Amino acid sequence: MSFLLALDSSTETLVVAVSREADLLAREGEGGARASEQMVPQAMALLAQAGLSLAELDAIAFAAGPGAFTGLRTACAVAQGLAFGAGKPVLPLDSLLLVAEDLRLQQPQTRFTGPCWVLMDARMNEIYAAAYEWQGDHWVTLRPPALYTLPAATEALQSLPPQALAGNALSVFAEALAPVLPSGVPQAAATRSRAAALASLARQAWGAGAAVDAAEAMPVYVRDKVAQTTAERLAAKGMA
Protein backbone atom coordinates (compact mmCIF):
# COMPACT_ATOMS: atom_id res chain seq x y z
CA MET A 1 0.00 0.00 0.00
CA SER A 2 1.38 3.41 -0.99
CA PHE A 3 0.99 6.58 1.09
CA LEU A 4 1.23 9.77 -0.97
CA LEU A 5 0.92 13.49 -0.21
CA ALA A 6 0.01 15.66 -3.22
CA LEU A 7 0.06 19.46 -3.52
CA ASP A 8 -1.34 21.83 -6.14
CA SER A 9 -1.40 25.64 -6.32
CA SER A 10 -1.11 25.98 -10.10
CA THR A 11 -4.52 27.73 -10.24
CA GLU A 12 -6.46 29.98 -7.86
CA THR A 13 -7.46 26.84 -5.92
CA LEU A 14 -5.14 25.37 -3.30
CA VAL A 15 -5.34 21.57 -3.18
CA VAL A 16 -3.78 19.25 -0.62
CA ALA A 17 -4.48 15.51 -0.80
CA VAL A 18 -3.34 12.43 1.09
CA SER A 19 -4.05 9.07 -0.51
CA ARG A 20 -3.74 5.48 0.59
CA GLU A 21 -4.41 3.58 -2.61
CA ALA A 22 -8.08 4.37 -3.37
CA ASP A 23 -8.71 6.13 -0.04
CA LEU A 24 -8.51 9.91 -0.19
CA LEU A 25 -8.41 12.75 2.32
CA ALA A 26 -8.32 16.19 0.72
CA ARG A 27 -8.75 19.91 1.20
CA GLU A 28 -9.57 22.39 -1.53
CA GLY A 29 -9.74 26.11 -0.84
CA GLU A 30 -8.55 29.58 -1.72
CA GLY A 31 -5.10 29.62 -3.24
CA GLY A 32 -3.44 32.48 -5.07
CA ALA A 33 -1.57 34.78 -2.71
CA ARG A 34 -2.59 32.69 0.30
CA ALA A 35 -1.13 29.43 -0.99
CA SER A 36 2.36 30.01 0.42
CA GLU A 37 1.09 30.56 3.96
CA GLN A 38 -1.61 27.87 3.90
CA MET A 39 0.00 24.90 2.13
CA VAL A 40 2.28 23.57 4.88
CA PRO A 41 -0.26 23.94 7.75
CA GLN A 42 -2.95 22.27 5.67
CA ALA A 43 -0.63 19.46 4.61
CA MET A 44 0.40 18.74 8.20
CA ALA A 45 -3.22 18.91 9.40
CA LEU A 46 -4.31 16.47 6.71
CA LEU A 47 -1.50 14.06 7.55
CA ALA A 48 -2.53 14.21 11.20
CA GLN A 49 -6.13 13.50 10.20
CA ALA A 50 -4.92 10.48 8.22
CA GLY A 51 -2.82 9.31 11.17
CA LEU A 52 0.38 9.54 9.16
CA SER A 53 3.74 11.20 9.63
CA LEU A 54 5.99 12.51 6.88
CA ALA A 55 8.31 9.59 7.54
CA GLU A 56 5.53 7.13 6.65
CA LEU A 57 4.93 8.64 3.21
CA ASP A 58 6.30 6.94 0.12
CA ALA A 59 6.55 10.16 -1.91
CA ILE A 60 5.36 13.76 -2.18
CA ALA A 61 3.69 14.83 -5.44
CA PHE A 62 3.12 18.34 -6.74
CA ALA A 63 1.52 19.94 -9.78
CA ALA A 64 4.59 21.21 -11.64
CA GLY A 65 2.87 23.29 -14.32
CA PRO A 66 1.95 24.95 -16.53
CA GLY A 67 0.04 27.41 -14.40
CA ALA A 68 0.35 30.45 -12.18
CA PHE A 69 4.03 31.40 -11.85
CA THR A 70 4.04 32.00 -8.08
CA GLY A 71 1.77 29.03 -7.41
CA LEU A 72 4.08 26.66 -9.28
CA ARG A 73 7.08 27.85 -7.30
CA THR A 74 5.16 27.51 -4.04
CA ALA A 75 4.12 23.90 -4.62
CA CYS A 76 7.57 22.92 -5.84
CA ALA A 77 9.34 24.58 -2.90
CA VAL A 78 7.02 23.00 -0.33
CA ALA A 79 7.26 19.56 -1.93
CA GLN A 80 11.05 19.83 -2.03
CA GLY A 81 11.31 21.09 1.54
CA LEU A 82 9.11 18.36 2.98
CA ALA A 83 10.80 15.70 0.87
CA PHE A 84 14.30 16.79 1.88
CA GLY A 85 13.32 16.80 5.53
CA ALA A 86 11.74 13.36 5.39
CA GLY A 87 14.21 11.79 2.96
CA LYS A 88 11.47 11.07 0.42
CA PRO A 89 11.32 11.26 -3.40
CA VAL A 90 9.14 13.69 -5.33
CA LEU A 91 6.57 13.13 -8.07
CA PRO A 92 6.27 16.15 -10.45
CA LEU A 93 2.84 16.06 -12.12
CA ASP A 94 1.57 17.71 -15.32
CA SER A 95 -0.97 20.35 -14.28
CA LEU A 96 -2.86 20.11 -17.57
CA LEU A 97 -3.00 16.32 -17.37
CA LEU A 98 -4.71 16.81 -14.02
CA VAL A 99 -7.61 18.43 -15.90
CA ALA A 100 -7.81 15.52 -18.35
CA GLU A 101 -7.83 13.07 -15.45
CA ASP A 102 -10.67 14.99 -13.81
CA LEU A 103 -12.71 14.66 -17.02
CA ARG A 104 -12.01 10.92 -17.09
CA LEU A 105 -13.09 10.55 -13.46
CA GLN A 106 -16.23 12.61 -14.12
CA GLN A 107 -17.29 10.23 -16.87
CA PRO A 108 -16.14 6.75 -15.73
CA GLN A 109 -18.37 4.92 -18.22
CA THR A 110 -16.88 6.74 -21.22
CA ARG A 111 -14.23 5.09 -23.38
CA PHE A 112 -11.55 7.72 -23.83
CA THR A 113 -10.05 6.88 -27.19
CA GLY A 114 -8.24 9.38 -29.34
CA PRO A 115 -6.86 12.80 -28.43
CA CYS A 116 -8.11 14.51 -25.27
CA TRP A 117 -7.26 18.20 -25.52
CA VAL A 118 -6.92 20.31 -22.37
CA LEU A 119 -7.36 24.03 -22.92
CA MET A 120 -6.76 26.40 -20.00
CA ASP A 121 -7.01 30.19 -19.92
CA ALA A 122 -3.46 31.56 -19.66
CA ARG A 123 -4.59 35.22 -19.52
CA MET A 124 -3.18 37.77 -21.98
CA ASN A 125 -5.59 36.29 -24.56
CA GLU A 126 -3.56 33.07 -24.68
CA ILE A 127 -4.18 29.41 -23.88
CA TYR A 128 -2.20 26.68 -22.16
CA ALA A 129 -2.93 23.54 -24.16
CA ALA A 130 -1.86 19.91 -24.46
CA ALA A 131 -3.23 16.71 -25.96
CA TYR A 132 -3.27 13.29 -24.30
CA GLU A 133 -4.61 9.80 -24.94
CA TRP A 134 -5.85 7.35 -22.32
CA GLN A 135 -4.48 3.88 -23.02
CA GLY A 136 -6.41 1.70 -20.64
CA ASP A 137 -4.51 2.33 -17.42
CA HIS A 138 -2.30 5.34 -18.14
CA TRP A 139 -2.10 8.56 -20.14
CA VAL A 140 0.22 9.14 -23.09
CA THR A 141 1.16 12.69 -24.09
CA LEU A 142 0.44 13.42 -27.77
CA ARG A 143 1.20 17.15 -27.65
CA PRO A 144 3.16 18.43 -24.63
CA PRO A 145 1.93 21.49 -22.71
CA ALA A 146 2.62 24.74 -24.56
CA LEU A 147 1.43 28.33 -24.71
CA TYR A 148 -0.78 29.15 -27.71
CA THR A 149 -2.30 32.27 -29.17
CA LEU A 150 -5.94 31.77 -30.15
CA PRO A 151 -5.11 31.36 -33.87
CA ALA A 152 -2.35 28.87 -33.04
CA ALA A 153 -4.68 26.93 -30.74
CA THR A 154 -7.37 26.62 -33.40
CA GLU A 155 -4.76 25.46 -35.90
CA ALA A 156 -3.48 22.82 -33.45
CA LEU A 157 -7.01 21.55 -32.81
CA GLN A 158 -7.60 21.23 -36.54
CA SER A 159 -4.35 19.34 -37.06
CA LEU A 160 -5.17 16.85 -34.27
CA PRO A 161 -8.98 16.74 -33.93
CA PRO A 162 -10.09 16.18 -30.32
CA GLN A 163 -12.13 13.21 -29.18
CA ALA A 164 -12.50 14.77 -25.72
CA LEU A 165 -12.14 18.32 -24.39
CA ALA A 166 -11.53 19.81 -20.96
CA GLY A 167 -10.50 23.10 -19.40
CA ASN A 168 -11.86 26.54 -18.60
CA ALA A 169 -10.77 28.00 -21.96
CA LEU A 170 -13.77 26.17 -23.43
CA SER A 171 -15.99 28.76 -21.75
CA VAL A 172 -13.60 31.73 -21.62
CA PHE A 173 -12.94 31.55 -25.38
CA ALA A 174 -16.14 29.77 -26.40
CA GLU A 175 -16.90 32.04 -29.36
CA ALA A 176 -13.38 31.96 -30.82
CA LEU A 177 -13.01 28.20 -30.43
CA ALA A 178 -16.51 27.19 -31.50
CA PRO A 179 -15.71 26.72 -35.22
CA VAL A 180 -13.08 24.03 -34.52
CA LEU A 181 -14.63 22.21 -31.54
CA PRO A 182 -16.51 19.02 -32.44
CA SER A 183 -19.88 18.29 -30.90
CA GLY A 184 -20.83 15.04 -29.25
CA VAL A 185 -17.47 14.34 -27.59
CA PRO A 186 -16.90 14.13 -23.81
CA GLN A 187 -16.08 17.56 -22.44
CA ALA A 188 -16.04 19.66 -19.29
CA ALA A 189 -15.20 23.34 -18.95
CA ALA A 190 -14.93 23.06 -15.14
CA THR A 191 -13.20 20.53 -12.96
CA ARG A 192 -15.31 18.59 -10.48
CA SER A 193 -12.53 17.64 -8.05
CA ARG A 194 -8.93 18.72 -8.56
CA ALA A 195 -8.09 16.81 -5.38
CA ALA A 196 -9.36 13.47 -6.67
CA ALA A 197 -7.62 13.97 -10.03
CA LEU A 198 -4.39 15.07 -8.31
CA ALA A 199 -4.36 12.01 -6.05
CA SER A 200 -5.18 9.71 -8.96
CA LEU A 201 -2.32 11.09 -11.07
CA ALA A 202 0.04 10.79 -8.11
CA ARG A 203 -0.83 7.10 -7.75
CA GLN A 204 -0.33 6.55 -11.49
CA ALA A 205 3.04 8.33 -11.40
CA TRP A 206 4.18 6.34 -8.36
CA GLY A 207 3.14 3.09 -9.99
CA ALA A 208 5.00 4.04 -13.17
CA GLY A 209 8.22 4.68 -11.26
CA ALA A 210 8.23 8.42 -12.03
CA ALA A 211 9.62 9.52 -8.66
CA VAL A 212 12.73 11.72 -8.71
CA ASP A 213 15.12 13.04 -6.10
CA ALA A 214 13.82 16.21 -4.48
CA ALA A 215 16.77 18.18 -5.88
CA GLU A 216 15.61 17.37 -9.41
CA ALA A 217 12.06 18.67 -8.97
CA MET A 218 11.42 21.79 -11.03
CA PRO A 219 8.36 23.83 -12.04
CA VAL A 220 7.33 23.70 -15.70
CA TYR A 221 7.16 27.17 -17.23
CA VAL A 222 5.93 27.53 -20.80
CA ARG A 223 5.62 31.31 -20.80
CA ASP A 224 8.92 33.14 -21.10
CA LYS A 225 7.45 36.61 -20.68
CA VAL A 226 4.96 37.25 -17.88
CA ALA A 227 5.19 41.03 -17.49
CA GLN A 228 5.88 44.15 -19.51
CA THR A 229 8.82 46.46 -18.89
CA THR A 230 8.11 50.06 -17.84
CA ALA A 231 8.97 51.23 -21.37
CA GLU A 232 6.52 48.71 -22.87
CA ARG A 233 3.73 49.79 -20.52
CA LEU A 234 4.30 53.46 -21.36
CA ALA A 235 4.41 52.70 -25.08
CA ALA A 236 1.12 50.82 -24.84
CA LYS A 237 -0.43 53.91 -23.28
CA GLY A 238 1.07 56.17 -25.95
CA MET A 239 3.30 57.94 -23.41
CA ALA A 240 6.76 56.86 -24.58
Automatic annotation (TrEMBL):
EC number: 2.3.1.234
Enzyme class: transferase
Keyword Cell inner membrane annotated: no
Gene3D superfamilies: 3.30.420.40
Pfam families: TsaD (PF00814)
InterPro entries tied to this protein: ATPase_NBD, Gcp-like_dom, T6A_TsaB
Domain Gcp-like: 36-141
GO molecular function terms noted in the UniProt entry: tRNA N(6)-L-threonylcarbamoyladenine synthase activity
Signal peptide range: none
Keyword annotations of the record: Acyltransferase, Transferase
Domain of life: Bacteria
NCBIfam families, per the entry: T6A_YeaZ (TIGR03725)
The name this protein goes by in its record: tRNA (Adenosine(37)-N6)-threonylcarbamoyltransferase complex dimerization subunit type 1 TsaB
Species per Swiss-Prot/TrEMBL record: Roseateles subflavus
